[in-house]
Amino acid sequence: MAENPHSQLASQDFERKLAQREKERSYYEVKVSELGLSSVERFRRFHPSPSRLLRAGGVFAHRDLEGVISAMGSQTSWAAVAGVNPSGPLHLGHLAIFQELRWLQDQGAEVHIPITDDESYLTGKTPSLAVANRTAHESIIPSLRGLGFLPERSRVYVDTDTPGIYTLAMELSKSLTINKAQKVFGFSPEENPGIFFYRSAVQLAQILLPQYPEYGGPKPSVIVVGIDQYPYLLLARDVAEKRGLTLPAGLFVKFLWGLDGLGKMSASRPASAIFLDETPEVAARKIKRSYTGGSSLASFQQEKGGVPEICPIYTLRAYHFEKDDSLKVACSTGKILCGDCKAQAISQVTDYLEEHQRLVQLR
Ligand code: SF4
């Protein structure tokens, strides 16, 4: 008897999603091996209360975290840094990084958060510098306050309001050469080397600022970033060595899948992202329409299971809300279907947005 055409389509779709999972897995494996990064597995296993992102596999590698790990268990001062481009309101993709930073603060870090309005403007993500600066003050800073960073151990600053960052960038630019920048970034001759050089010097200043005298001098530090920011870490380590500073470490976070299934969650594709300032109703509509790692044929999904690793709903729930692996198990064994899973996601996101927006109003 001929196979049901619906089953055939479901089967092809499932194969495509498995291939997508392999591509995703090998992307990160290749990065780890090409860049000589280390696995976070031991850190995750031996930490008595790892972060949710670490447990869920959202943090996938590190570079030289050992100094920071020893500082965690002692009275030594250490720092964690993660920046944000104020090209729009914060969304759940940013939140994963800031929740990790908040967890590092619980482990003893002093936290530095540069808000890079200059970069938003220079890279054309905002129409003017004034717009980027306004977004930083009116949207990003209130949202960050809602995340509960401890004020006495946090430094949040907007680049163009902070002359000290440019004084330091100017100083550090003396250690940068165009050859070095070319080697690390490999930019093409058509790119504007002036902007490139400027951004590199300012990023170096942001990464190394916690080690300057006004912040207590040389100390272990870690930047929490996506792998696309690795070249800046490399450059910062090179300059730190020349200047007698402690080489900064890196903790690398996977991108959160966009709800449209087309890549990472991004403000430039509003349907892909859930913004922290949008209403739960708008967020719920986006979740209902989201791409998933499941099948349109319930019986097929019950039999074969879903593919959580490439499912935006899974990463959203695992990185932000789930306490253990049970959703991953339920999804891959077909015990839960996408309709129910999305309904649970809507409830989690609604509770989170309501509470976050209440806290933002209060602070
Ligand atoms: S059941 Fe949930 S996690 Fe699994 S594929 Fe469907 S939406 Fe994604």
Written overview of the protein:
The chain has 363 residues and is of the alpha/beta class. 53% of the residues lie in helices and 8% in strands. The protein is built from 16 helices and six strands. The chain has helices spanning 5-35, 41-46, 52-55, 66-72, 92-106, 117-122, 129-145, 163-173, 178-185, 193-208, 230-242, 280-288, 298-304, 312-320, 326-332, 338-362, and strands at 59-63, 79-81, 110-115, 154-158, 221-225, 249-253. A six-stranded mixed sheet has the order 1-6-5-2-3-4, with helices on both faces. α5 links the parallel β2 and β3 (110-115). α9 runs antiparallel to α11 (230-242) and α10 packs across α11 (230-242). The longest helix has 31 residues, at 5-35. It is globular. The N and C termini lie far apart (66 Å). The model has no long low-confidence stretch (mean pLDDT 92). Iron/sulfur cluster (SF4) binds at residues 292-294, 306, 308, 311, 313-314, 331, 336-338, 341-342.
